[in-house]
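Sample intake sheet
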Amino acid sequence: MDYLQKLEQRSIYILREAYYSFRRLGMLWSIGKDSTVMLWLARKAFFGHVPFTLIHIDTGFKIPEMIEYRDQLVQRWKLNLIFGRNDEALESKQTFPDGAIDRLSCCSLLKTDALRRTIDGSGSRYRVDPVNGCYTPCDDATPFSGVIAGVRSDEEGTRSKERYFSPRGLDSQWDIAQQPPELWDQYNTSFPPGTHVRVHPLLDWTELNIWEYIERENISTVSLYFDQGEGKRYRSLGCYPCTSPVASTARTPGEIVAELREGKFSRIAERAGRAQDSAGGGGLEKLRRGGYM
């Protein structure tokens, strides 16, 4: 058994353990490479079926190709997907692109708050029809007791402090000091009533592992990850006003794997193109403590 197979088996075990241990779980799907690999693993774990409601947080500023890919995959795989949105902030133009607030405050409103309110049922939810791709308001406001997320510990500093099963407070707030130990592959799935749980099946995967797996499994991803002839591509995807591509001529998963193995980006953080990550004062950790992915 090679290393990728070991990672795959552990992730499948985590997904099945989560399904067995917690009721009303949702699976966060950012449309990026990591959460798409996680979606692929879920289909493997449950024999072609995804038993979780997929949750996407639409900020209103996603790159159009991302939304097109989302809707196409929902129809192709007949996925049960809802998306949440902070309609109040968007309608009042309380956003960074509108010049009203800074980047981190914008992330807090359009991502953290929208995610929290989508999870607890107090915010706007929309359902994507898996047949025709139409969007309709979702009248089911039942809270999710936990969510599965495609977090990787190597992606950035705060994510390295996570656990496979990570408890949150009622408002999805994260107390890093109260993380349970996970020793010798023993995972704690017993938490007090009212605990919101985040499950991270990809925690020990690296960026290289993700692309190796995408190549091996022939997983379709958003075309933005590949050079379209301009000598640049996206390494990490987010909102278009705050996300920049990197210089790269890679046009296939195999070519991205070669770049990563050669160490081309060894001194450049994967999320270096995400402007909010560069904000000072530990802004990203503050967002994540408040419930951000």
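Comment: Residues 3-205 form a domain with the Rossmann fold fold (CATH 3.40.50.620). The chain has two domains: 3-205, 207-277.
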